[in-house]
């Protein structure tokens, strides 16, 4: 049954969360007294939070849609670059104790925390976006996973077809298996359409456990300069908010840059160089977030993993700006070959 609610927005600091959560313990969530049943959605962002104009903003778009169309209450909280799993657990426990149900952890780094906390709150539904290994535990936990390699394959093909120097590059935020899937698909797609294309050694901004590579734009700027100096005239980034530095630097140099997660052609932070954004590899995180909230709202929640791929339009490439219009037929042919299984896209570089 659909439940109508008024909308509120709560802002909570990380410090307050940790203190409050430690005081709350592991009690079952208080869903409120008498009267109308309510749904209060809690969403914990990945590093960068709302406003990163990439991965987190795609999740935020899904939350905003749920707020508008389902009229739910929401609370959203951002992560800190140096936080631990314990910090994430505290954040999730606080939201659960406050009666938020469902609760969403945005980013693979929430996988362990969600799996652990969900066991203590069996009546609360949880979602991990980009779950580590696409695996979650428990009857009240779901995972939204994306075929990043498939979408990256298509923008890799676009990069090779558009390159004039014959050299292209890839910049990843943090060297983890998730981001390696972007690299693997990108390189395979480029080689498919132009076997002799030179792909510069991939540059990762940081190594785990340092996740600042998803946030520090100066790191993206410096990495982009290095690949431009090495002759790349198309560079693809999978670096979250740090990728804004990549886009601005490559755009200012008059070369092609490829965005990620959101259609970055339309993001205000890069408006001055948007005509240098060749395309973006789009992950429809907004759809996954909305679908999950709607499923709980309508008592149709299903535990386990769901894959968002090319076939389900969970990933794809952006056409804003018209820069890939002349090669779109080739990209669409490759897309259909991936969907049919004719092309097997690698997930490791």
Would you give an account of this structure?
It is a single chain. The protein contains ten helices and 14 strands. It is α/β, with parallel strands linked by helices and 349 residues long. The model is unreliable at 1-35 (pLDDT under 50). It has a seven-stranded parallel β-sheet, with helices on both faces.
Query: Might you state the CATH topology name of the largest domain?
Result: Rossmann fold
Instruction: Provide the CATH top-level class of the largest domain.
Output: Alpha Beta
**Can you tell me the overall shape?**
globular
Task: Provide the number of structural domains.
Answer: 2
How many strands appear in the DSSP assignment? 14
Task: Specify the biggest β-sheet.
Answer: 7 strands, parallel
- Count of runs of 4 or more consecutive helical residues: 10
Unreliable parts: 1-35
Organism: Actinomadura hallensis
Family: Belongs to the BMP lipoprotein family.
Subcellular location: Cell membrane
Protein name: Nucleoside-binding protein
